[in-house]
Amino acid sequence: MCSGGFAKCLGISLMPLSIVCVLCNILLFFPGGKSVESEHITDEVFYCGGILGSGVLMIFPALVFLGLKNNDCCGCCGNESCGRRFAMLTSILFAAVGVAGAGYSVIVSAVAINHGPECVVNSTGTQWDYPFSNGDYLSNKTAWTTVCLEPPDVVSWHLSLFSVLLVMGLIQMALCAVQVVNGLLGCLCGDCCGGGDGAV
Question: Where this protein primarily resides, as one coarse class (predicted)?
Fold first, then answer.
């Protein structure tokens, strides 16, 4: 497969992943599916790892990858293959942006999972805290409902959505890393190694 066509496949894969990450981050603003005061939303949600890192910053490389197969730039000094090689080289820079954005989302998600959600920890519903900040709650599911009283199911909500963001971010990082290798091959060998620089 031509490097431009392969990059287009990567771009197509990145777009739905970005949308999923944005939606997950938006849902995290509603702990347990409930609307709460902004000061009671887990801190890491406001870092917007899914919206900024795996969302907005991932859209740019995805669009660049999608356009590589149909790149018809006239090249440098009239040499079309030179233009295609430069486009593949440019895609490496956008892939690096994608890795950075997804990496940011992964770090925020990992910290959030370890930190746990903010929730009500007393029966009167007045004290909000991070009861699982030492990260030992993952294997103790009974504490999810006995320690975190409100909002309902906030621990599973928090853990599920941040886990999705973590996994999606890792997949995005892998896809962008693959494009770095693909871009290098496209830059060195042309758009189609062994098939002529002008093929698409």
Answer: membrane
